[in-house]
Amino acid sequence: FHRGYYIRARAVDHCVQDFLLKTQSHPRRQILSLGAGFDSLYFRLKDLGLLHHAVVYEVDFPNVAHQKAALIKRMKELSALVGDTGGEGVGVITCSGEDYKLLGVDLSELSELERALEEAGLDNEIPTLFIAEVVLTYMENNRSDALIQWAAERFSQACFLLYEQMHPEDPFGRVMQQHFSQLNSALHSLAQYPDCGAQQRRFLEKGWTECSVMDMNEFFTCCTPEDEQQRVRALEPFDEYEEWHLKCSHYFVLTASKGMEPSWTPLSSSMTVPHQHGPVRVAGSITAAACATHSGISGLRRYGHHSVLIKPNVILTTGGFGEEDGQHCRMKNFHVLIKHVGCWKAGCVKKANPDKRWDERLYHTVSCLSDNLALVVGGRTSPSSAGLGMLWLKFPEACNALDPDDITVELVSLQPAAEPAASRWRHSTTEVIFKGEKYLFVFGGRSAMEPVLGDWYFLHTPELSCAVIPVEGPVPESRHSHSACSWKGGVLIAGGLGAAEQPLGSVFFLRELECGFQWQTVETHPPLVPRYSHTAHVHDGKLLLVGGVWFHSSSVPGVTVIDLMTGLCLDYMINEHLEWPLMLHNHSSVFLPNEKELLLIGGGGNCFSFGTHLNPEPVSLSLNNILSSH
């Protein structure tokens, strides 16, 4: 929430101050804020001394304008800045000072708006900035289009600043639309103008000669100075990267102008722009089918959890944040999914020692070391908490693997010598082989002190002593929320979120040598679109990357297949024949190689102010077609 509203205010301030700077040599200029609501923009600009030779006009419904005028009159600091006479407003002008006019008019009534602005003194021959900050989308499209065209036609030196939502049809967009529909405030622009390209064409067709548009991920990366980005990242403990980047990919800032000399281009940047990937070339699609588990439990509605195959056709899911006993919380209970006669059955796992603390962790890893033993590494409670260490999960040797009620787990704490290895979350833990011995390779992640880690540990199993094994080659950059898979005795690392909160597109293979290991870069073509918060599996020399978050916002990640011999990289969309949006981030997945079936468990999260969406049930993807076609 904090970052989401910050970036909106930052974008508007950036563009408004750029307009005032570029027009400072003009004897007069003006700003017209459409649907201004209770915005404090005028007061901030006035307080900063930026309104020389400038007048700010604000327009909103009469009842809003009257409330705002009354508020200004009641507060000495505000009325002093306006220099208001203190008398009642005249006609539609509810508050008036030398450089501030507040008007109560319905924006959709264009002739009425034009008459009121003329009466208030708006001059169509001087530089004018129009601001519409999440306003036009609430109007019928023919009326908002008419307003955009009127502004271009009637004003000789005009600039327009628009901030609005986009991408209505992907899972996040569907949750967003549903939210506004429930408020009886449908977003009208979205169907006709669903993305940046459509909005840009809209303005150029309505008489504007120049138009730039970018989503808020690009704005934060390219138009926000590096020191300001660092300041924002350091303000408070933060671990909601997926929600932040998805929110930013569903809002855009647009600037348009005509008749401006020199041209007005506040969204151009001298900063280095990250490589922009073109449209994702889709090789095909995969159909998603919901797995009806008929259990009546909500325990698999969660995110930030971990799922692991503990026995054939038995999947254990631990931790995360989700829905338990009718409320949202960090998950206390463990759950299993058991496949029997082609159907999945879900249930709660009994703890052999229920008094033993589990610490309800998120973003941990679970590694299955044998039929009856798994190791939990790291995880967190809150983002300001220290790492939670390691924990053994012990299962009875003989148990009925057909009934969830018959599976029990015993929790055993341990204090290994490699404690720093466990003081992290969003890391990976992968089994590797060195000289015939098994090790767990813990890589990357983040901690309460370090926003991103690039170190690694080799833990010898089963005693978990920390082994020093030489590693050569180009070291991968620090990352968290990446994927890691065992392959040929080594490990494949793909994607992740890097030091500047930028998704990474690199793939590395840690290969066993006689005397240690070696990092090797895996070249992909076309280049892998940078992503994080995905899951991954290896099958028959192919690396499968599932879901995640990327900044390429024209589509959402589905399943990417990388041929590890040739480097060929193919993207497949997921067809959701589901009754709910499928959010593939912060999920877990288990691959069943015999059936070539991928089971997706949980996923989703908080969708800005639009509500929390958790995938309600597991989803099955059949990969037969795409794996046999390679």
Automatic annotation (TrEMBL):
Q: What's a BP term from Gene Ontology annotated to this protein?
A: wybutosine biosynthetic process
Q: Which pathway does this chain act in?
A: tRNA modification; wybutosine-tRNA(Phe) biosynthesis
Q: Which GO terms describe its molecular function?
A: tRNA methyltransferase activity
Q: Which SUPFAM superfamilies match?
A: Galactose oxidase, central domain, S-adenosyl-L-methionine-dependent methyltransferases
Q: Which UniProt keywords apply?
A: Methyltransferase, S-adenosyl-L-methionine, Transferase, tRNA processing
Which InterPro entries does the protein's record reference?
Gal_Oxase/kelch_b-propeller (IPR011043), Kelch-typ_b-propeller (IPR015915), Ppm1/Ppm2/Tcmp (IPR007213), SAM-dependent_MTases_sf (IPR029063)
Catalysed transformations (reactions): 7-[(3S)-(3-amino-3-methoxycarbonyl)propyl]wyosine(37) in tRNA(Phe) + S-adenosyl-L-methionine + CO2 = wybutosine(37) in tRNA(Phe) + S-adenosyl-L-homocysteine + 2 H(+); 7-[(3S)-3-amino-3-carboxypropyl]wyosine(37) in tRNA(Phe) + S-adenosyl-L-methionine = 7-[(3S)-(3-amino-3-methoxycarbonyl)propyl]wyosine(37) in tRNA(Phe) + S-adenosyl-L-homocysteine
Q: Top-level EC class, please?
A: transferase
E.C. number, please? 2.1.1.290, 2.3.1.231
* Transferase found in the keyword field: yes
Taxonomic superkingdom: Eukaryota
| Gene3D superfamilies according to UniProt | Kelch-type beta propeller, Vaccinia Virus protein VP39
The family annotation for this protein states: Belongs to the methyltransferase superfamily. LCMT family.
PANTHER family recorded for this chain?
TRNA WYBUTOSINE-SYNTHESIZING PROTEIN 4
Its name, as the record gives it, is tRNA wybutosine-synthesizing protein 4
